[in-house]
Amino acid sequence: MKIATWNVNSLKIRLQQVLDWLAANPVDALCLQELKLPDERFPHEAIQDAGYHAAVAGQSTYNGVAVLSRTPPRDVVRNIPGYEDAQQRLVSVTLDSPLGDVRIISAYCPNGQSLTSDKYAYKLAWYQALHEHLQQELGRFPRLALLGDFNVAPEDRDVHDPVKWEGDVLVSEPERQALQKLLDLGLHDSFRLFEQPEKSFSWWDYRQMAFRRNAGLRIDHVLLSDALRPHCVECVIDKTPRRNEQPSDHTPVVATLQ
User: Fold this and answer.
1) Helix, strand, or coil here: 200?
2) How many separate domains does the chain show?
């Protein structure tokens, strides 16, 4: 079973890139973030023609998440139950697999903007709500995978220039602690289960030739529960789509479970 995450930064602009990537990489589930489309404009027909079902939490202009899956999704839940939020940032599904039921969650965590912004406080509050939600989900679904754009680089090795970024949003200690609290529930960063090349990143700014200089951050993650961790045999960052014409500023992260 292969599962992947990709912040596409507008599905309207990059639908063909997603379809091309799926044709070359027929994963069992692909979690998308930043659809920037309302539900009624989601391209269900094109996704179905590619052999996938879609569970969607769309939003016009901003945010929006989806899970594309080979098998029909069940128990679909949009957003964090009990947490009032107009922003569409989470969609959860249950999928059949050779391992049994697997809970797949696609998450677009808030960016935070700056340490002095109201959006930063919102980010930390949202992470706390996610933490409480995952406690319940892991009780119901031991085989759980949380994939998405977390907007947090967990360690300095996930940052191209830690000194330059020190104390900034995406790397601040409260953000890293919020992510660590999720891991402490019994989740594992699948990328770090294996030896990886140095300077491995999943996001590069469009400006200042950041991708060409590999001046990026690793902020897109595939987190696996205790029950799924032993089945993970590989996790890779696929940089190929970042070389596309008009690419997303993020690139896919793919985990393989056996």
Assistant:
1) coil
2) 1
Domain range for 129: 2-257
Q: pLDDT value at position 189? A: 98
Does residue 243 contact residue 194 with C-beta atoms inside 8 Å? no
Neighbour-count burial of 78, counting CB atoms closer than 10 A to its CB (0-12 exposed, 13-18 middle, 19+ buried):
middle
pLDDT for the residue 193: 98
Amino acid at 194: F
Element (H, E) at 176: helix 173-183
Q: Which of 52, 108, 120, 127 is catalytic?
A: 108
Report whether 122 contacts 165 (CB < 8 A).
Answer: no
Are the C-beta atoms of residues 113 and 192 closer than 8 Å to each other? no
49 is catalytic: no
pTM: 0.98
Catalytic residue among 28, 52, 120, 149: 149
Record the tokens describing residue 57, joined without a space: 């939490």
The pLDDT, as a whole number, for residue 230 is 98
Q: Of all helices (H) and strands (E), which one includes residue 54?
A: strand 53-57
What is the SS3 assignment for 185? coil
Helix (H, G, I), strand (E, B), or coil: what is residue 209?
coil
CATH of the domain at 131: 3.60.10.10
Q: 206 an active-site residue?
A: no
pLDDT digits (tens, 9 = 90+) for 171-218: 999 999 999 999 999 999 999 999 999 999 999 999 999 999 999 999
- 4 φ, ψ to 5°? -145, 160
Q: Which amino acid type is present at position 188?
A: H
